[in-house]
Design a protein that fits this description.
Blueprint (H helix, E strand, L loop, with lengths): L5 H4 L29 E9 L3 E10 L8 E9 L2 E10 L7 E12 L11 E14 L3 E13 L8 H4 L8 E14 L11 E13 L2 E15 L4 E13 L30 E3 L6 E3 L4 E13 L5 E13 L11 E12 L2 E10 L11 E6 L3
Antiparallel strand pairs: 1-2, 1-18, 2-3, 3-4, 4-5, 5-6, 6-7, 7-8, 8-9, 9-10, 10-11, 11-14, 12-13, 14-15, 15-16, 16-17, 17-18
C-alpha cells in the first residue's frame, strides 16, 4: 500500500501497509479445475468494521504462450467495490528483473463508524520493476498515476474542499517510488518465532501542481524465548514533505486498527477536519506518522498454526513532529490470538486505551476472518 492511497486505505480493516505486516495466509477459496493452466478462486473476508467482503480472482500463467502471468481480482462489500488487473513478466528480457503492469479502480461509500462521512472513487495505473538479490534482499522501482475523484460526494471535509490540489473535484497524481526490503523471516511471519524484516521506501511526485516526497520505514524483530515462546518488536514511521504550499491531503497518513494501533478503529487516529455541511469531524490524516508494537507470546499446535500473545501498541499521525513525542502517542494494551484454521485465517484481539477512552475512535474487540487482501 502506498501513501498516495490514503483515502483508499481508509476502507481497509488493516491500516497503513508501511506501518505493519498484515495477515498473509490463503483465503477461504474454492479452486475450480479448468482445462487450461489458469486458476479461479472465490474468497470471503469478514471483520467487525467493514463486515463481509467477497472476492473473485483469476490467475493465468504463461499468457498467450509467453512467460507473462495475468491476475484479475473483483471485490465487493457494503462500503466499497473494486477491480484490479496486473500482468507480470518474471524475467524481463531474460534478465534478473521482473516487470509488472497494473491497473485498479475502486468506488468507496461513506462510513460514519470510522469517521469517513464522504465518498470517492480512485483509479491507478502503474508499471514496476523488481529484483531479488539473494534470498533475503529485494528492491523495486515503480512509476504510476493516480486519479482521486470526489465529484459525487454529497459532503466533504473543509480541509479537502479548500485544498489547492483539488481541481474540479479531482486530484491527479503522478509519482515514482523506490523501495528496498531485507528479511530473514522463514515461512509465515504471523507464526514465526525468530527473524527480522527491514523495509524502506521513497516516493516523489506531483499532486496537481504541488510537488511532494514521502519517506517510509518499518522494522520488525522477533526474538525466540525457547522453542515456541517469542517476543516481537515493531516500529514504523512515515514523513511527507513539500516546498510548495500545503502538503497534498491525498498523501496524508492516518493510523489505528489491526496491524497498527489495536483498540482503535481503523485509520481513526490523526488530524480531523469538520464536514462542510454536517459539521461532523472526519479524519483527514497528517504528513507525519509513527507506530510501535511489542508482543510476547507463544506458538502452539502440531503445525504451529496457533499463536497467543499479549501486546502493547502505540502511535499517532500529526502535522507537527512534536505530536509524535512518546508521551503524546495513543497507547493500548491487550491480548490476542491468531489461528490458521482449515477454512481460513482468524485473528482476534482485545485492547484498551491507556489514556481516556474516546467512544468515536476506540474499539476494544477487533476480529478478522478470511483473506486479507
Amino acid at each position: 500500500m502506498k501513501p498516495y492511497k490514503f483515502l483508499y486505505r481508509l476502507t481497509l480493516a488493516s491500516s497503513l501497509s508501511v506501518l505493519a505486516p498484515q495477515l498473509s495466509a490463503q483465503p477461504l477459496a474454492f479452486d475450480l479445475d479448468m482445462p487450461s493452466e489458469g486458476a479461479y478462486k472465490l474468497g470471503v473476508f469478514y471483520d467487525n468494521i467493514n463486515q463481509a467482503t467477497f472476492n473473485f480472482g483469476l490467475e493465468q500463467p504463461n499468457l498467450l504462450g509467453t512467460d507473462d502471468n495475468l491476475a484479475l481480482d473483483l471485490s465487493y462489500s457494503k462500503y466499497s467495490s473494486g477491480f484490479s488487473v496486473r500482468s507480470t513478466d518474471p524475467d524481463l528480457f531474460e534478465s534478473p528483473w521482473s516487470r509488472t503492469f497494473s491497473f485498479s479502480t475502486r468506488q468507496i461509500s461513506t462510513h460514519e463508524d470510522i469517521l469517513r462521512d464522504f465518498s470517492f472513487g480512485t483509479a491507478d495505473a502503474e508499471v514496476s520493476f523488481g529484483r531479488e538479490f539473494g534470498p533475503r534482499r529485494s528492491m523495486s522501482i515503480a512509476l504510476g498515476y493516480n486519479l482521486l475523484d470526489l465529484k459525487n460526494s454529497d459532503d466533504l471535509p473543509v480541509l479537502i474542499a479548500n485544498a489547492d490540489v483539488l481541481d474540479d473535484g479531482q486530484v491527479h497524481t503522478g509519482y515514482a517510488t523506490l523501495s528496498h526490503k531485507f528479511s530473514t523471516m522463514v515461512g509465515d511471519e504471523n507464526f514465526a518465532t525468530s527473524g527480522s524484516t527491514f523495509i524502506t521506501s521513497l516516493e516523489i511526485g506531483n499532486a496537481g501542481s504541488t510537488p511532494y516526497a514521502v519517506g517510509q520505514l518499518s522494522a520488525q524483530r522477533i526474538i525466540p524465548l525457547g522453542e515456541r515462546m517469542f517476543t516481537k518488536g515493531r516500529i514504523a514511521a512515515s514523513a511527507g514533505f513539500t516546498n510548495s504550499g500545503d502538503f497534498p491531503f491525498n498523501q496524508n497518513t492516518s493510523v489505528g486498527g489491526p496491524g497498527s494501533v489495536r483498540g482503535y478503529k481503523p485509520n481513526s487516529l490523526g488530524p480531523v477536519s469538520a464536514m462542510q455541511t454536517s459539521g461532523e469531524d472526519a479524519v483527514v490524516g497528517g504528513k507525519y506518522a509513527l507506530t510501535y508494537s511489542l508482543e510476547v507470546g507463544m506458538v502452539s499446535g502440531q503445525n504451529r498454526n496457533l499463536a497467543m500473545f499479549a501486546f502493547m501498541d502505540g502511535g499517532d499521525a500529526t502535522n507537527d513532529t512534536s505530536g509524535l513525542a512518546p508521551s503524546r502517542l495513543n497507547r493500548t494494551t491487550g491480548v490476542g490470538l491468531r489461528w490458521q484454521s482449515p477454512v481460513g485465517p482468524f485473528d482476534i484481539s482485545y485492547a484498551q486505551p491507556v489514556h481516556d477512552r474516546d467512544d468515536e475512535r476506540t474499539q476494544e474487540l477487533q476480529f478478522t476472518f478470511g483473506w486479507l487482501f
